[in-house]
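Troubleshooting entry. The earlier prediction with NDP gave an output that would not parse, so I re-checked the input for stray whitespace and re-submitted. Clean input:
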Amino acid sequence: MSKKKKEVSNTLTTAFGIPVGNDLNSQTAGERGPVLMQDVHLLEKLGHFDRERIPERVVHAKGAGAGGYFEVTADVTQYTKAKFLSEIGKRTEVFVRFSTVGGEKGSADAARDPRGFAVKFYTEKGNYDMTGNNTPVFFIRDPLKFPDFIHTQKRNPGTNLKDPDMFWDFLSLTPESIHQVTILFSDRGTPATYRNMNGYSSHTFKWYNDKGDYFWVQYHFKTDQGIKNLTREEATRISGENPDHATQDLYDAIERGDYPSWTLEMQILTPEQAKDFQWDIFDITKVWPHGEVPPIKIGKLVLNRNPVNYFAEVEQAAFSPGNLVPGIAASPDKMLQARLFSYHDTHIHRLGPNYHLIPVNAPKYAPENSYQRDGFMRVDANGGNGPNYWPNSLGGPAPDPTTGEPPFEVAGKAGRHPYTHPNDDFVQAGNLYRNVMTDQDRENLVGNIADHLSGAQKRIQLRQTAVFYKADPDYGRRVAEGLGLDIKEIERLAGMSQEERAKSTQE
Ligand code: NDP
């Protein structure tokens, strides 16, 4: 076979490399048309344009991304055998995507919303994804509620408008959301830029070492740029002036060589410590208090490369909490368990079954040795003429029994179990309000809530304000004042069980 070299040329071509003679005038019968079917260049161009859009992510649609590296700064080999964490000074290439959650692809970066913080580590043992948020907790702890919750943060099915009734109706009937609602309505709900916020795993994960010992861990990427937030007024103004302000800030900072970085701190619990821990470590609505589990610094994340092409690298970037490398495993956190399924599933929907072949998603430093074959857009060699089944006696890739998570015990009855942990859902939100926030933080929090909740029906305002009151009476009182609600009514509602409160504020 002759080995022809690809010609280098700057001539415009069709998608199939055929030179194009004219790209301004369609082929027509006569000067004034009609257009001829045989103008295949026109047909190809229109046909591709008609298919340019891929499905928008149902959550985290608006995002910005950048490349960089992660460097290990402490010895963590006693906790994990993850190869990329195996020695101080070791660097691993990363790609990071930041995002808002509820808004569409064209929505404003300054919206009040959690921010996604997803990191893809291209390790020599395959790609490891840490898909976190800028908040250490979440609104709900059971994935069965997730689609409903997200619907309430989107548009009303009738009016196609954002709807404070939907938003607060659901949250006030889901009081475990109070901790996250308190963070979301503090000024941390409107970070100044993506560079000025932290990233948290929020979930608990499992680390295990080469002896088979395991530990429960949480990740905290602390911004080295310092936390900076927008006030409600600033966020409103910036949303109008430059809806892409955070996307632009990240891009401009990297362009000028001002590389943003984050220090990775870990909270680590032994299984024995976890047994006596006062909080349910698999409940994502709770944090592990720093005083009880002091975070330890273990690494640095640096972003120093802007994407060359947004669609190729950022829009097509696909992260999944299921991409876990040896040394790191999932925990029983029910929300995490559902995300292990849902992220991969949504990428198959959005990008196709071979999305792992798209360069930003493909393992860069590990081979892909699977027996998956075929499917739309299988654009690599598809395993060539090697075997496409296991077991085989043809020398195909074989499982390595030394890799993977050690077996672990489970117990209990299968069933749809309601949440029964004795520590209630209001304590940590109350601690945040009372002990962590400054007077200014509390003032802004109450103002932000009153501004938003005032758009909901009064019965919903009453129900939600009772939830604030349960977190802290002063918190509830101030929100009631801001909304002009009768505090006696709030106190009465706060004294009821959740079911009674829901019933007495029914439409
Ligand atoms: P600590 O005083 O040890 O920690 C408080 C932490 O709260 C700070 O380290 C900071 O976390 C974060 N924080 C500071 N200001 C605000 C704010 N305005 N809004 C939201 N978070 C803020 O106390 P605990 O560990 O006992 O936690 C008390 C409360 O602090 C928790 O109930 C939780 O709401 C909040 N919190 C706790 C975190 C944790 O992992 N323990 C993490 C974040 C918030 P950071 O350094 O991560 O910015």
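This one parsed fine. The chain has a mean pLDDT of 97.
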